[in-house]
């Protein structure tokens, strides 16, 4: 898969069939749209292209008031898109200046003149260009003018629910990761480097790998305890994760993300780990003493082990 970060005369496109959007999470609905686009492009010997922005438009337009929290980092998104067989992803550098282009100017200057779009597939509720003024009708008129066709795609449902990135983000913030994972069609992931904590974990029999998220835009599930699957290099472990302020032992209010891996005893400081968040177990609590905390973590381990054995 080709990743284009800057459009210039070196980057050539073969009659691209293009879709446009943030595609946060690359959920089941997104996957269906992309699969059909890829298939059509293959049949017609054209190039399948996904056009997205980096950084996220809201981050550029409202840097103070809006902290964008997304399901996937750009790298995570690219990995999922590659799996779906897209030929090309354009990560267009979004700027304030760019945001002032009208829908018409964007289509003409970028999609037609720089990319040579032959067909566009857009979501049922997609709007684009300055103030999100560009509608499907306008795009169709521009298509007639500049000779490309436009298809609007219906919303995709799982049971009764129209799948959307917003719904998934809300489920994650509510701790409902099982539902989020169902709509995503894969597990929500947190990844980063293992950093040193206060070194208390090992003294209570539960050493925990504290993760430093490498990305501040990543959405973090609601504080609490979760069953998790941890990947370190090519190895994978069942684990239990705590997200929160650790009120029993700390009072600085900062949130940590830490995992206790089952049947594991290695030094993994500075290693990069990937955590698939599977199921919420309970809220984080303040215990009277470390002994009570320890007893509860033992129960959490049992809950997480039960979750994993129920999958077999
Ligand atoms: C499964 C699990 C559940 C936890 N639950 C709580 C909790 O409910 N309340 C709390 O204050 N800390 C909780 N913790 C955090 C512990 O306080 C923390 O792991 C321990 O103090 C070690 O800290 P350290 O990594 O800085 O050494 C939990 C940790 C794990 C692994
Ligand atoms: N089963 C395990 N799960 C997580 N980390 C482990 C495990 N066994 C050993 N470790 C190592 O121990 C470290 C955590 O020990 P801990 O006393 O909790 O210190 P810290 O406060 O620095 O996290 C981890 O970062 C890792 O290198």
UniProtKB/TrEMBL annotation:
Pathway: Cofactor biosynthesis; FMN biosynthesis; FMN from riboflavin (ATP route): step 1/1; Cofactor biosynthesis; FAD biosynthesis; FAD from FMN: step 1/1. CDD domains: FAD_synthetase_N. GO terms for biological process: FAD biosynthetic process; FMN biosynthetic process; riboflavin biosynthetic process. Residues 183-309 form the Riboflavin kinase domain. Keywords: ATP-binding, FAD, Flavoprotein, FMN, Kinase, Multifunctional enzyme, Nucleotide-binding, Nucleotidyltransferase, Transferase. GO terms for molecular function: ATP binding; FMN adenylyltransferase activity; riboflavin kinase activity. The keyword Ribosomal protein does not apply. The keyword Nucleotide-binding applies. Its EC number is 2.7.1.26, 2.7.7.2. It catalyses: riboflavin + ATP = FMN + ADP + H(+); FMN + ATP + H(+) = FAD + diphosphate. PANTHER family: RIBOFLAVIN KINASE, RIBOFLAVIN KINASE/FMN ADENYLYLTRANSFERASE. Belongs to the ribF family. Catalyzes the phosphorylation of riboflavin to FMN followed by the adenylation of FMN to FAD. This is Riboflavin biosynthesis protein. It comes from Fluviicola taffensis (strain DSM 16823 / NCIMB 13979 / RW262).
């Amino acid at each position: 898969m080709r990743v284009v970060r800057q459009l210039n005369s070196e980057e050539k496109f073969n009659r691209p069939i293009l879709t446009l959007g943030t595609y946060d999470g690359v959920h089941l609905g997104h996957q269906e749209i992309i699969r059909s686009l890829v298939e059509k492009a293959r049949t017609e010997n054209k190039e399948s292209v996904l056009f997205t922005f980096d950084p996220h438009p809201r981050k550029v337009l409202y840097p103070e008031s809006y902290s964008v929290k997304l399901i996937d980092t750009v790298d995570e998104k690219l990995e999922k898109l590659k799996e779906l067989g897209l030929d090309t992803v354009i990560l267009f550098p979004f700027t304030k200046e760019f945001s002032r282009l009208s829908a018409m100017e964007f289509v003409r200057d970028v999609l037609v003149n720089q990319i040579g779009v032959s067909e566009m597939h857009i979501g049922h509720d997609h709007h684009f260009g300055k103030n999100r003024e560009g509608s499907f009708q306008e795009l169709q008129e521009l298509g007639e003018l500049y000779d490309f066709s436009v298809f609007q795609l219906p919303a995709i449902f799982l049971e009764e629910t129209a799948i959307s990135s917003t719904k998934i983000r809300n489920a994650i913030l509510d701790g409902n990761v099982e539902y989020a994972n169902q709509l995503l069609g894969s597990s929500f992931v947190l990844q980063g480097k293992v950093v040193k904590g206060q070194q208390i974990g090992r003294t209570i029999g539960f050493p925990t790998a504290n993760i430093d998220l490498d990305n501040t835009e990543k959405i973090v599930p609601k504080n609490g305890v979760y069953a998790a699957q941890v990947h370190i290099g090519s190895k994978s472990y069942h684990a239990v994760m705590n997200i929160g302020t650790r009120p029993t032992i700390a009072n600085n209010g900062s949130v940590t993300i830490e995992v206790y891996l089952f049947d594991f005893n290695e030094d993994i400081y500075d290693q990069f780990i990937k955590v698939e968040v599977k199921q919420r177990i309970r809220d984080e609590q303040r215990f009277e003493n470390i002994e009570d905390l320890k007893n509860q973590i033992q129960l959490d381990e049992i809950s997480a082990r039960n979750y994993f054995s129920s999958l077999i």
